[in-house]
Amino acid sequence: MNISVIGVGYVGLVTGTCLAEIGHHVTCLDIDQGKIKQLNQGLSPIYEPGLEELLQHNLSKQTLSFTSSYQAACKEAEVIIIAVGTPSNTDGSADLSAIKNAAEKIGAYVRHTDTIVVTKSTVPVGTNKKIKAWVSGNLKQNVQVMIASNPEFLREGSAIHDTFNGDRIVLGTDDSKAASKLQEMLKPFRVPILHTSIESAEMIKYSSNAFLATKISFINEIANLCEKLGANVEDVAKGMGMDQRIGHQFLNAGIGYGGSCFPKDTNALVQMAGNLHHKFDLLESVIHVNAKQQVKLVEFAKKHMKEIKGKTAGILGLSFKPNTDDIREAASIEIINALLKAGVRVTVYDPVSQDKVKLLLGDSVSYAEDCFAAIEDQEMLFIATEWEEFKVLRLSTIAKLMKTPNVFDGRNCFSLHEAKKTTMNYYSIGRPAVMNHCTEKERV
Ligand code: UGA
């Protein structure tokens, strides 16, 4: 099938590449010509395990190509997938200007009658109807399009795996011809397909992300209580997760959710509800809990150390989660800003996202060449992302390298058993603090 994908961000690039991999002819379009040039050379602009290999494989098979020309992308396309960004406006609502622009351009250049315009971008409920109007407003005589919503559920860092091993594909369309053609297109993924109305498909996306965010804020609040009650959140989550109605996933307590999806989509859903005079109390609390959780480690440091002003801190991990270079809404940035505000001198390290942080924070922090350089001689160490290369470190080595071994682990990377065998103070999330090293408060 001839497919075009508009927008080569995370979703667009992974979708286009995977559709080419299952045998379709895919043309991906982006208005960023630098990106297109890079992609045509087989270089991925994002860090995503396995993506560059698939990209190069399909470029060489000539089943995948990249362009900046709407004419080239729309001319032969039977299916056009919109995957442009929908960033947040200042009030939390979704900015649809890129979607509108793409829809109008598609309308102007589409030539095949019965082309299906599929939206993968996360858009407020009701937007697909607007997309139909924006496309139709520009169509040539005798050309008609069908509209469908196909929300994306892949996760950054495991996007390729998720595309081929998803739990479900949701197809929302009011047109049975579009539904069966899209089902045919997606069949090789061998993932169960749920057919719904357009509005329900749009709503499934927001509800799924909001529910997962709720699960995370819920377990983080339980963790906060565990700390006060002497319980261990990991055991609590395990015991809860064994109940199949609850499930084990997304019950890892930590320093909150970040990234380009949960923060944006929860805010947008609250905003959408507000527009309909419905106050979404539950989701507002989820967002509030998350904001507090992101800077919780700094509060720990202020509580347990006599004074943090003038001290030094290392930060391990900057991306919002491992296996990605994405730092959008990352807890690390909130922690760094809070530490800088408190007068702490900060050294950071991340295996892949350091350059992005440099663009954001400039020389307000120092950049370490490896994790050891970020640990050495520090008075505090904050672990913000659970990269595998941090989890294999020995706590005893960390303790030896630091000037005063105060470790604040926001992702529970180490066992309490190991921490107890060291000379450090080890503070983690929802587990009893291990205090082997005399705290400065105790010393006075
Ligand atoms: C999320 C959803 O999981 C995808 O299904 C969805 O397609 C995507 O948003 C999207 O809307 O595009 P993603 O943001 O890539 O995917 O990452 P997740 O793996 O869901 O993690 C989000 C955040 O939650 C991370 O900061 C992670 O550290 C945090 N998290 C996750 C926890 O704190 N605890 C957990 O148990 C799980």
UniProtKB/TrEMBL annotation:
<dbReference type="InterPro" id="IPR017476">
    <property type="entry name" value="UDP-Glc/GDP-Man"/>
</dbReference>
<dbReference type="GO" id="GO:0051287">
    <property type="term" value="F:NAD binding"/>
</dbReference>
<dbReference type="InterPro" id="IPR008927">
    <property type="entry name" value="6-PGluconate_DH-like_C_sf"/>
</dbReference>
<feature type="active site" description="Nucleophile">
    <location>
        <position position="261"/>
    </location>
</feature>
<feature type="binding site">
    <location>
        <position position="264"/>
    </location>
    <ligand>
        <name>NAD(+)</name>
    </ligand>
</feature>
<feature type="binding site">
    <location>
        <position position="30"/>
    </location>
    <ligand>
        <name>NAD(+)</name>
    </ligand>
</feature>
<feature type="binding site">
    <location>
        <begin position="250"/>
        <end position="254"/>
    </location>
    <ligand>
        <name>substrate</name>
    </ligand>
</feature>
<dbReference type="Pfam" id="PF03721">
    <property type="entry name" value="UDPG_MGDP_dh_N"/>
</dbReference>
<dbReference type="InterPro" id="IPR028357">
    <property type="entry name" value="UDPglc_DH_bac"/>
</dbReference>
<feature type="binding site">
    <location>
        <begin position="153"/>
        <end position="156"/>
    </location>
    <ligand>
        <name>substrate</name>
    </ligand>
</feature>
<dbReference type="InterPro" id="IPR014027">
    <property type="entry name" value="UDP-Glc/GDP-Man_DH_C"/>
</dbReference>
<dbReference type="GO" id="GO:0003979">
    <property type="term" value="F:UDP-glucose 6-dehydrogenase activity"/>
</dbReference>
<dbReference type="GO" id="GO:0006065">
    <property type="term" value="P:UDP-glucuronate biosynthetic process"/>
</dbReference>
<feature type="binding site">
    <location>
        <position position="321"/>
    </location>
    <ligand>
        <name>substrate</name>
    </ligand>
</feature>
<feature type="binding site">
    <location>
        <position position="35"/>
    </location>
    <ligand>
        <name>NAD(+)</name>
    </ligand>
</feature>
<feature type="binding site">
    <location>
        <position position="205"/>
    </location>
    <ligand>
        <name>substrate</name>
    </ligand>
</feature>
<dbReference type="Pfam" id="PF03720">
    <property type="entry name" value="UDPG_MGDP_dh_C"/>
</dbReference>
<feature type="binding site">
    <location>
        <position position="86"/>
    </location>
    <ligand>
        <name>NAD(+)</name>
    </ligand>
</feature>
<feature type="binding site">
    <location>
        <position position="258"/>
    </location>
    <ligand>
        <name>substrate</name>
    </ligand>
</feature>
<feature type="binding site">
    <location>
        <position position="328"/>
    </location>
    <ligand>
        <name>NAD(+)</name>
    </ligand>
</feature>
<dbReference type="InterPro" id="IPR001732">
    <property type="entry name" value="UDP-Glc/GDP-Man_DH_N"/>
</dbReference>
<dbReference type="GO" id="GO:0000271">
    <property type="term" value="P:polysaccharide biosynthetic process"/>
</dbReference>
<comment type="similarity">
    <text>Belongs to the UDP-glucose/GDP-mannose dehydrogenase family.</text>
</comment>
<feature type="domain" description="UDP-glucose/GDP-mannose dehydrogenase C-terminal">
    <location>
        <begin position="314"/>
        <end position="416"/>
    </location>
</feature>
<protein>
    <recommendedName>
        <fullName>UDP-glucose 6-dehydrogenase</fullName>
        <ecNumber>1.1.1.22</ecNumber>
    </recommendedName>
</protein>
<feature type="binding site">
    <location>
        <position position="156"/>
    </location>
    <ligand>
        <name>NAD(+)</name>
    </ligand>
</feature>
<dbReference type="InterPro" id="IPR036291">
    <property type="entry name" value="NAD(P)-bd_dom_sf"/>
</dbReference>
<keyword id="KW-0560">Oxidoreductase</keyword>
<dbReference type="InterPro" id="IPR036220">
    <property type="entry name" value="UDP-Glc/GDP-Man_DH_C_sf"/>
</dbReference>
<comment type="pathway">
    <text>Nucleotide-sugar biosynthesis; UDP-alpha-D-glucuronate biosynthesis; UDP-alpha-D-glucuronate from UDP-alpha-D-glucose: step 1/1.</text>
</comment>
<feature type="binding site">
    <location>
        <position position="122"/>
    </location>
    <ligand>
        <name>NAD(+)</name>
    </ligand>
</feature>
<dbReference type="InterPro" id="IPR014026">
    <property type="entry name" value="UDP-Glc/GDP-Man_DH_dimer"/>
</dbReference>
<dbReference type="Pfam" id="PF00984">
    <property type="entry name" value="UDPG_MGDP_dh"/>
</dbReference>
<keyword id="KW-0520">NAD</keyword>
